[in-house]
TrEMBL record:
EC number of this enzyme: 2.7.13.3
Lineage: Bacteria, Bacillati, Actinomycetota, Actinomycetes, Kitasatosporales
Top-level taxonomic group: Bacteria
Any one Gene Ontology molecular-function term assigned to this protein's record: kinase activity
SMART domains: HATPase_c
Domain named Histidine kinase: residues: 422-533
Protein's cellular compartments: Cell membrane
UniProt-recorded name of the protein: histidine kinase
Organism: Streptomyces actuosus
Length: 555
């Protein structure tokens, strides 16, 4: 069995965000301090060198301006006790220079710090100074590295008779530079301490805001959040403190009919003025707020967040609302059938009594009258309204109206061909208006609802009148607002959607829906639907005749 290999010690960043941020910021502060110190020391060194060279040049210039030195250089020999050496030493001691060297045109020294070197040739090239130029620089000579200044030495008549070379010890420059380093390090250390304290405060704030999670945990949470937001079948819209959309998932885009371009815009700009924008912006408050967007019925809830923003959730209630309305219609039909069953039983009892009394003629007349009433109602509807869906709806509504003690009448001017572009849409409009009218006349005397449907070219004009209490003028626009209703909510949910859907369907086709006071009291709703009828097709009768002629010719 082979031995287990030793585990390698792996060094890396700590997992906690607090530690990572603190470490990185301290490292940045230290790097900035070192960089600042280096940037300060580099020009300081050059500045000190420049100052030393110009100081040496100034001493050399002052020395060269003394005429006695030029005279002594020409008249005396280079000796350690000569007048030139004495004057040079006096100047060196007075100025603190490292050396003051005076030479003739051949480069022979007349003065030097080391008397033994007097009479020897200079160690550096004096040609530029002897040529009349003033020279500064850092040179390596017999006394080591120094900042030098060289100038020509002229006699009283201005002729160059030699040169003066003055040196400033480079060690003094270095000493000044080194002496500046402790103060600089103290400043850098203070800056680093302040930076570390600021880094600690920032890290603590980051720790509180990130709840001390690791960066990997935050990344995983963001990935999970993205997957969750775009995977759930509920619309989510996040808004910032300024009321602009910050995020919306795929379902919210589908329900609202918008795209990613909505991000960064306000609900009013992205969706237009309306109840949906009001709900998202928080101008309408409450829970399970109903709103209509296009053909969809949405349930919205809005929850404020700690940073001043909000998160709104949207649920699609369109199918549920349709099912609820179908359930209401089914309940109505069941009640109507129950009433008809009761009425049918009474009629059967009446018919049985007539037969037992052997009043056969009266029995036949009674059956004919009952059957004729039902046939007349169905024939009247189908004669004026040729679309089967709409006709079936009105026949059923007539039965429901009769059960509720109201009369549903089809106006004599009603005439609608079977060329509807959107039969289901018109069925929704008529059904909602009739239901609204039947609710309005419930419990009133002589309750009556009148429907008029007529075609004007390709435009369909629908009018529904009722004998109810009517709608006050100041509320005639509010009745078309989502969620507004004066009736008790049904068992399955909330009211205030039907009339809003009516207006939405009308406006989607470029039409309109209005309500005014009806003649004699009550309300009159009018819906105009342009382009609701298809172009009339060819008359089928001539085609049949031609087919018969062709068949006859074939025989």
């Amino acid at each position: 069995m082979s031995p287990t290999p030793p585990r390698r010690l792996r060094l890396g960043l700590p997992r906690r965000v607090f530690s990572q941020v603190l470490l990185m910021q301290v490292a940045i502060a230290a790097g900035v301090a070192v960089l600042a110190a280096g940037l300060f020391l580099a020009p300081l060194s050059h500045q000190l060198d420049d100052q030393a060279m110009h100081r040496a040049l100034a001493i050399a210039q002052t020395t060269a301006q003394q005429p006695q030195i030029a005279t002594d250089l020409q008249r005396t020999a280079p000796r350690p006790d000569g007048p030139v050496q004495q004057q040079a030493e006096r100047i060196r001691l007075a100025t603190g220079a490292e050396y003051v060297v005076i030479m003739n045109l051949d480069g022979t020294r007349w003065s030097h710090t080391d008397p033994a070197r007097i009479g020897g040739h200079v160690s550096t090239d004096p040609s530029q100074a002897l040529g009349g130029k003033e020279v500064v620089g850092i040179d390596e000579g017999t006394l080591g590295r120094s900042a030098r200044g060289k100038v020509p030495l002229r006699d009283a008549e201005g002729r160059i008779v030699g040169a003066v070379s003055v040196g400033i010890a480079y060690d003094s420059v270095r000493a000044r530079l080194i002496s500046a380093i402790p103060g600089l390090l103290a400043l850098a250390g203070g800056a680093l301490a302040v930076g570390a304290l600021a880094a600690w405060l920032v890290s603590r704030r980051v720790q509180r805001q990130t709840r001390d999670l690791a960066f990997s945990d935050i990344s995983a949470l963001l990935a999970e959040r993205e997957a969750m937001l775009h995977g759930i079948r509920e619309g989510v819209v996040a808004l910032d403190r300024s009321g602009r959309v910050r995020l919306l998932n795929d379902e919210a885009q589908r329900l609202l009919g918008v795209g990613e371009e909505t991000v960064g815009r306000s609900p009013d700009d992205a969706l237009g003025k309306g109840r949906t924008a009001d709900v998202l912006a928080g101008r309408v408050t409450g829970t399970d707020l109903l709103t209509v967007r296009g053909q969809r019925v949405l349930v919205a809830n809005r929850m404020p967040t700690g940073d001043g923003g909000a998160v709104a959730t949207l649920r699609d209630r369109t199918e549920l609302e349709e099912l609820a309305r179908e359930l209401d219609s089914t309940h109505g039909l069941i009640d109507a059938l129950r009433a008809q069953d009761h009425e049918h039983a009474n009629r059967m009892h009446t018919l049985l009594g007539l037969l037992e009394l052997e009043m056969y003629d009266d029995a036949v007349a009674f059956v004919g009258e009952v059957v004729g009433d039902h046939r007349t109602t169905a024939e009247q509807v189908t004669e004026k309204i040729q679309d089967p869906l709409l006709a079936a709806l009105l026949v059923g509504k007539a039965t429901v109206a009769a059960e509720r003690g109201a009369a549903l009448r089809i106006c004599d001017r009603t005439q609608l061909p079977d060329r509807l572009v959107d039969p289901r849409g018109l069925v929704t409009v008529v059904g909602n208006l009739v239901d609204n009218a039947l609710d309005a006349v419930a419990g009133t005397r002589h309750a009556r609802v009148e429907i008029e449907l007529r075609a004007e070219g390709r435009t369909v004009v629908l009018t529904v009148r009722d004998t109810g209490p009517g709608i006050p003028a100041e509320q005639r626009e509010l009745v078309f607002t989502e969620g507004w209703s004066t009736k008790r909510p049904p068992a399955h949910g909330k009211r205030g959607i039907g009339l809003s859907l009516v207006r939405r369907l009308a406006e989607r086709q470029g039409g309109r829906a209005t309500v005014v006071e009806a003649d004699g009291g009550g309300a009159r709703f009018t819906v105009v639907l342009p382009e609701a009828l298809a172009e009339p097709g060819p008359d089928p009768a001539p085609a049949a005749s031609l087919g018969a002629v062709a068949e006859e010719g074939a025989r």
